[in-house]
Amino acid sequence: MDAAVVIAGAGPTGLLLAAELAQAGVPVVVLERDPEPRLAAMGMAVNAGVVELLAERDLMDRIGADGLPWPRAHFAQLWLDPGRVPGRQAHTYLLPQAKLEEHLLAHATKLGAEIRRGVTVRGVRQDAGGVTVDTSAGEVGAAYLVGCDGAHSVVRSAAGITFEGSESAFDGIAGDVEVPHGHPLYQQLGANDFSRGLFSVAPSGMGLLRVATGEFGRRPADRAAPPDAAELRAAVRRLTGQDIDVGTPRWLGRWDCETRQADRYRAGRVFLAGEAAHVHFPLGGQALSTNLEDAVNLGWKLAAELAGWAPSGLLDSYHDERHPAGARTCLTTAAQLALLHPAEQVAPLRQVMTELIEFDAVNEYLVRTAGGLNVRHPDGGDHPLVGRRVPGVPLPPGRGVALRFDRSVPLDVSGWAGRVDLVTAEPSADVPAAALLARPDGRIAWATDSADPEGLAAALSTWFGAPARA
């Protein structure tokens, strides 16, 4: 075998998954068809959920230096106030996806992941012993294959996984344009909605602006043809009624209005993650947060299986947890679409929603939804923290942690040495519990408010396998 795990696709999902596996000592190879890192990446923001996830991995200080904190959030471009949400809150960052990929590439390669560029995946076959990937550079063998190769995933098709959903007529153009200081586009900064669709402008680098237009009910003349400056300028004119110079494009691409989800995230030894598993209208960074959560959920489970200590059903729990999360993201982005178009029909509903957002509970719910902060899995457990991410606590990479805030709580994790660390910490207002057990992906598997740690052994066995014999 060439590696224990082969990943198709070196976008953010594939790179973070590769880093998670390499951190756990798993030999991993990433196959990427593009010969060079891409500049034409549509993403422009990392939401609060992604910021928390990257901070856990000690990456946010470096990545955040290339971004701009954005202490706002929106739901269907109805503006929310994260500052009204109680407790410590991570903020969204304006950050071009190409820059995020640059950092994740450096992170993955530093940990030992191998990136093979200019390699196209053409087919897949598997048996009980492993997976063979047919590529433009020959066959590659592995114990497991993960398709992180986007909406048109070759891996998904080869595995026989369906990708049902819907698509609406939509004409979207986005890209980075070079503009001098004082250019008229600077007067258009922000996210704006019009009767025909959306128009946004945001800084994306020195002398660069990210411009995006989206027109509902319209299809491009040739979807396969790359847009040019004239087409972008015409779209801006149709939306705004103004003829605005759009600068000199460094790159332009198309985006669409499509919602689809794979019927299953696993077929034998083949898994799907990111946009190979789910696509939806891009709003508020929810796509990226859902994609990266797939990566961290799957990474430690594959590592556990390969290390030989995974409990029965652990790999299947990836689909069981992430498929509902992906479905929820598809639902909430579809709800936002319903609040955007047709503009005349939804105007009264938007007015009522604006009034509802004045209520703190509504504002908090939508802030958490838009920020990817309300995902809860494993779903279950009596304690309200179970299934949620450990807030504000850095975790040891690739390992579970039994975290004790009350020193009187007896926590025995000796049978899981090497899989779970025992840490005693000062009480934190952000973590209302006496003790908890966190999985390697940062999700809380067990928590207690008392000095009697009932249920800890069961949680340890459920997520970290049988205890080692003395």
UniProtKB/TrEMBL annotation:
UniProt keyword annotations, A-Z: FAD, Flavoprotein, Monooxygenase, Oxidoreductase
SUPFAM superfamilies (alphabetical): FAD/NAD(P)-binding domain
Keyword Flavoprotein: yes
Keyword Glycosyltransferase: no
GO molecular function, one term: monooxygenase activity
CC cofactor: FAD
Cited Pfam families: FAD_binding_3 (PF01494), Rng_hyd_C (PF21274)
Domain FAD-binding residue range list: 3-329
Name of the protein: FAD-dependent monooxygenase
The organism of origin for this protein: Dactylosporangium cerinum
